[in-house]
Automatic annotation (TrEMBL), chain A:
Alphabetical list of CDD domains matching this protein: fer2 (cd00207)
Tree of life domain: Bacteria
Lineage per the UniProt record: Bacteria, Pseudomonadati, Pseudomonadota, Alphaproteobacteria, Rhodobacterales
Keywords assigned by UniProt, alphabetized: 2Fe-2S, Iron, Iron-sulfur, Metal-binding, Oxidoreductase
KW Metal-binding (keyword) present: yes
Keyword Iron: yes
PANTHER family, per database record: OXIDOREDUCTASE WITH IRON-SULFUR SUBUNIT (PTHR44379)
UniProt xrefs under InterPro entries: 2Fe-2S-bd, 2Fe-2S-bd_dom_sf, 2Fe-2S_ferredoxin-like_sf, 2Fe-2S_ferredoxin-type, Beta-grasp_dom_sf, Diverse_Oxidoreductases
SUPFAM superfamilies attached to this UniProt entry: 2Fe-2S ferredoxin-like, CO dehydrogenase ISP C-domain like
Any Pfam family hit: Fer2
Originating organism: Sinisalibacter aestuarii
Name of this protein: Carbon-monoxide dehydrogenase small subunit
Residue ranges annotated for the 2Fe-2S ferredoxin-type domain, each copy included: 2-78
UniProtKB/TrEMBL annotation, chain B:
Pfam families associated with the record: FAD_binding_5 (PF00941)
PROSITE patterns the record matches: FAD_PCMH (PS51387)
The keyword Oxidoreductase is annotated on this UniProt entry: yes
UniProt KW Lipid metabolism keyword: no
Keywords: FAD, Flavoprotein, Oxidoreductase
Source organism, top-level taxon: Bacteria
Name of the protein in question: Carbon monoxide dehydrogenase
Organism lineage string: Bacteria, Pseudomonadati, Pseudomonadota, Alphaproteobacteria, Rhodobacterales
Domain FAD-binding PCMH-type: 1-166
């Protein structure tokens, strides 16, 4: 067991976990933040995406012990007061989800994509949004409304 | 995942010691290949030695060479104005943004996946792989599938890219995995053209003599036309047979020269 300290959604947390604990397991099982989903064993689906120190990563493919001291934001951290984040609202407005399993990861990847584009003073094209979503798989929507949602949120964020 | 012991040394000597001490110890960098294989129980190291505390990350230019630290992520190389634009473009096309935020150049070339991108840039540019004990020329570094010249417990610390006159990269993605069905890296150097092909060879990345001769004589997309690319020694799988890959090598070589 190793003691891990992180700031998750602005709150300092400390837990003793086995060294092989994945960040996704740490979030879901130790912290009970089950908004982060796990959809595959192969690091391919992107349902588990969270932000670590300001970058979107697959939480199923990082060790919790390796992230001692990190700042982590999960889907729960986007709406701290119950008011939807512009990206969440845009997914809702554009019917960007059906079963919703991929949605937390889609939204976390999309927020990072839009924030990076804004910081670079760029407006995302549809092609860039699709390229940016290559690590997130959705088996329901056909992606079209997800892309529309990201484009809308990019205007509002 | 099976139980393991995690180490995060702050000095290279401690990392080497930890690798030697563990029963089956492995280097951990971005984890985008290693943790994925461990989750599927295809690898079960007893100890992981995380090298991200060793200050091996960063890009620096000196005397025409550009040195990329082993733990520099694909995203950092993609955004770099110091590496050759062809190398930045290659890094920007690896996997997806999430993989690029974690995966590292050292991990990619240590792993030497036959469909990975970086081996093409390292071999195509004629780069040098720098480790804790020595410097290895790209021509001597890559072995067969998932095989390299690295010794047990040897750690890549950096990759040094020389200056080239022109370079270009073109990749035909396997649409589901986004790894290379075929990727071709071309470089025009003072000693002639270098052409490295990834994704296609049964023994991993390789240089193509015919394309190198043609492009050394005439650096143009048209020069590729006259070259015969044999399917012998190329992979055949459900994604494409050897003839298909042979044809793609020419198409990608043409595109790579065109963007150089
Ligand atoms: C969904 C997905 C898509 C991908 N698509 C592509 C793609 O299109 N093209 C591509 O090229 N790659 C692709 N990859 C692989 C990705 O680039 C990995 O990041 C890379 O292959 C491994 O780098 P890493 O830093 O994550 O290494 P790790 O996974 O940490 O390590 C990989 C191996 O290298 C060893 N190692 C790591 N660093 C060193 C070092 N400095 N010295 C010695 N040994 C070391 C480790 O012990 C391990 O055996 C993809 C991966 C995923 C999950
Ligand atoms: S759970 Fe599928 S990529 Fe993380
Ligand atoms: S909404 Fe069902 S997987 Fe995307």
């Amino acid at each position: 067991m190793t003691e891990v300290t992180m700031t998750v959604n602005g709150r300092k947390v400390r837990r003793d976990v086995p060294d092989e604990t994945l960040l996704s397991e740490f979030l879901r099982e130790s912290l009970r933040l089950t908004g982060t989903h796990v959809g595959c064993d192969t690091t391919q689906c992107g349902a588990c995406v969270v932000h670590v120190n300001g970058a979107a990563v697959k939480s199923c493919s990082a060790l919790a012990v390796a992230l001692d001291g990190a700042e982590v934001t999960t889907i729960e951290g986007l709406a701290p007061n119950g008011e939807l984040h512009p990206m969440q609202k845009a997914f809702n407005d554009n019917h960007g989800l059906q079963c919703g399993f991929c949605t937390p990861g889609m939204i976390m990847t999309s927020v990072d994509m839009v924030e990076k584009a804004k910081a670079a003073g760029k407006t995302l094209t549809e092609a860039e949004i699709r390229h940016g979503l290559e690590g997130n798989i959705c088996r329901c929507t056909g992606y079209h409304n997800i892309v529309k949602a990201v484009a809308q949120a990019a205007q509002e964020m | 995942m099976y139980p393991l012991k995690y180490h995060k040394p702050a000095a290279l000597a401690d990392a080497i010691a930890a690798l030697g001490a563990g029963e089956e110890a492995k280097v951990l960098a971005g984890g985008q290949t290693l943790l994925a294989t461990m989750k599927q129980h295809l690898a079960a190291p007893t100890d992981l030695v995380d090298i991200r505390g060793l200050s091996l990350s960063g890009i620096s230019a000196a005397g025409g060479d550009v040195t990329v630290g082993a733990t520099t992520t694909h995203a950092e190389v993609a955004a770099s104005g110091e590496v050759h634009p062809a190398v930045a473009v290659l890094a920007a096309g690896i996997g997806d943004p999430l993989v690029r935020n974690m995966g590292t150049i050292g991990g990619s070339i240590a792993n030497n996946d036959p469909a990975a991108d970086y081996p093409a840039a390292v071999l195509g540019m004629g780069a040098t792989v720098v480790t804790n004990t020595r410097e290895i020329a790209a021509d001597d570094y890559f072995g067969g599938l998932f095989t390299t010249a690295l010794e047990e417990g040897e750690i890549i610390t950096a990759v040094r890219f020389p200056n080239v006159e022109r370079a270009g990269y073109a990749k035909f993605k396997q649409p589901a995995s986004r790894f290379c069905l075929v990727g071709v890296f071309v470089a025009k150097t003072a000693d002639g053209a270098r052409v490295a092909v990834t994704g296609a060879g049964e023994d991993g990345v390789f240089r193509h003599e015919g394309l190198e001769a043609a492009l050394s004589a005439n650096w143009s997309p048209e020069a590729v036309e006259a070259v015969t690319v044999s399917p012998d020694g190329l992979m055949s799988d459900i994604h494409g047979d050897a003839e298909y890959r042979a044809n793609l090598i020419k198409v990608m070589a043409r595109r790579a020269v065109a963007v150089s």
